[in-house]
Amino acid sequence: MGWLFLKVLLVGMTFSGFLCPLLDFSISGKTRAPKPNIVIILADDMGWGDLGANWAETKGTAHLDKMASEGMRFVDFHAAASTCSPSRASLLTGRLGLRNGVTHNFAITSVGGLPLNETTLAEVLQHAGYATAMIEQENYVLNLRIPASHSCPTQVVSLSSQDLTSDAGTSLPASLAGKWHLGHHGSYHPNFRGFDYYFGIPYSHDMGCTDTPGYNYPPCPACPQRHGLWRSPERDCYTEVALPLYENLNIVEQPVNLSGLARKYAEKAVAFIEQASASGRPFLLYVGLAHMHVPLPVTPPLESPQNQRPYHASLREMDSLVGQIKDKVDHVAKENTLLWFTGDNGPWAQKCELAGSVGPFFGLWQTHQGGSSAKQTTWEGGHRVPALAYWPGRVPANVTSTALLSVLDIFPTAIALAGASLPPNRNFDGLDASEVLFGRSQVGHRVLFHPNSGAAGEYGGLQTIRLDRHKAFYITGGAKACDGSTGPEQHHDSPLIFNLEEDAAEAVPLQRGSPEYQAVLPKVTRVLADVLRDVANDNISRADYTQDPSVTPCCSHSQIACRCQTV
After folding, report:
1. How far is the C-alpha of 40 from the C-alpha of 425, rounded, in Å?
2. Are 275 and 136 in contact (CB under 8 A)?
3. Where in this chain does the entry annotate a coiled-coil region (predicted)?
4. Catalytic residue selected from 20, 84, 209, 220
5. In DSSP terms, which residues pair with 142 in a beta bridge?
6. Does the annotation count 181 as an active-site position?
C-alpha cells in the first residue's frame, strides 16, 4: 500500500468515525540515521524576564536555568511577530507574514489557516526521513493503540515500514501536540500539514469556556452546565462553545480540563521521545505549550509564599514540564538531539499580575505616551523572547550568545542540520544559525524586521527595523495596558531611532540632527526599500480570514457548550 493511499485511508476512516483517536503507539526499527533529532518547545506569552538565567529577579525556572548552564542562552533572540498565529506560521515556514499570508490571529470560526501552498517544517523533515511531532510518532513498525471507549473497543493496528514509506524511501508518520492556531477546518488541520499525529488545542486556550476556568483578568465564568444557567460574561470571554481537545481529527474532550493539560502534554512528549528513539529514525518533536498564556491553571499550593502567586506557580509548572522532556532526551537520545526552547511573543500586559516580565526592555518612550509596550507591539518587550539551545557535545555549554537571531531561523537551521533542502521558488527571512549554535560564530542577522502585530498600523506591515544595534520606528502605538489604556497610533516620517546597546529600555530616541542619526537613517531607508521590493517580487501567499460559525469545533451540537468526553 502506498504511503499516500494509507494516509488518505486512515484520515478518511477517522472522519467517518470508524477509527478511534490515537492515544498511544509503539515503534520498532533497527536502522539509525546520523541525522539529529530536533525538539522545539514553544512557550506562549512568556516574557524575556521570565527566565531566571536572564533576569535574577525571576525564581522558579530551575530546569530551564540548568539547561542554560549546560547549553547556549540567546539574549538577543526575537519572535517573528508579537502575537500568536503569525509567530507560529513564521516558525513553521521561515517566512514573515507578508510572505506566508498569516498576519494576524485566526478565530474559532475561521474557515482558513496557514495557506496550503506554504510548506511547513514538518513536511520538509518528513520527506527527509524524520518522524515529526507536536506530538507525534513514527515507524518502522507502527502500532496505533486505539483506546477502549463506549463506542470502540481497544485494538492495535500494525503497519509495516514498507506501508509507511514512499517509493523513494522517505517516511510518512508525523505527529504534533499542543497549541496549533494555524487553522482547524478541513485541510488546514495539522494532520494535513505534515503532522500524522496531533494532540492538542487548535487555538489559544482562552478561546472557549471550561469547567476549570483557571486565572484570568478579568475572570471568565465556567461553562454552563445546562440551559437556563447562562451567566453574564465579561467582554472577550467565550461562553457558548467549550474549549476542545483534539486527538488527530477527533475531539476527545470538550471542555478541556486545564488543570491536567500540562501532565497530558508531558506524557505525550516523553512517550514520543522514548518510542521514536527506539525506532532508530531521526525525529522532530514540536511542543506548543499553553503556558504562560491565560487562563493560568489552578496548581497545588506551594511552600514558598512568593510562589503562591498564580503566575509564579504556573511558571514553575511549565519549567517542570520542560524538565521532564529534557530528562527523557538525556536518558535516551542525549548525544544526537538538539533541544530548542523559545517563546512566541512577549507578555500580555493587560492581564496585570497574570502577565510576565519584560526584564529591562520597558519600552519607556511608548509607556510615557500611553499603553503597553509588550505583546502586540513592536517594542522590545513585545518580541524579544527567552531562547535556549541544548545539545551536549555539539552546542557548547554555559555560553551566552549575543547574536541577533529570530524564531524565523529555526526553519532553515533545522533543515540544514537534517541535510534537507529549502522549499523551492520562494524567499526566506530566516537564516541558518548552525555556526552560532556550535560556537563558531557570534554573527546572526544584520537586519531584522518586526511586523505590526495589532497595536498600530496594518497587520503584518514592516515599519519597525532592527539594524545592528539600532532600531527604527516609522510607526508607534501602545497595546492595551493593565489600567485599560492604549497608546495612540503615531506615524513618523522621520523614524524614531534608538541605540539599543545604550538604551535597552527604548526611553530616548536619537536626536534627528545628531551625526549618529544621520549616519543610520539612509541605511534604514535602504534596507526597508530592499525588503519591500523583495516581497513584491516573491511567491507570496494569502491567508483566508473569512469566518463561518458552522466550522466552530463542536463534538456534540445537542449539548450545551458542545459537551462531550471520550478520554
Report:
1. 26
2. no
3. none
4. 84
5. 27, 159
6. yes
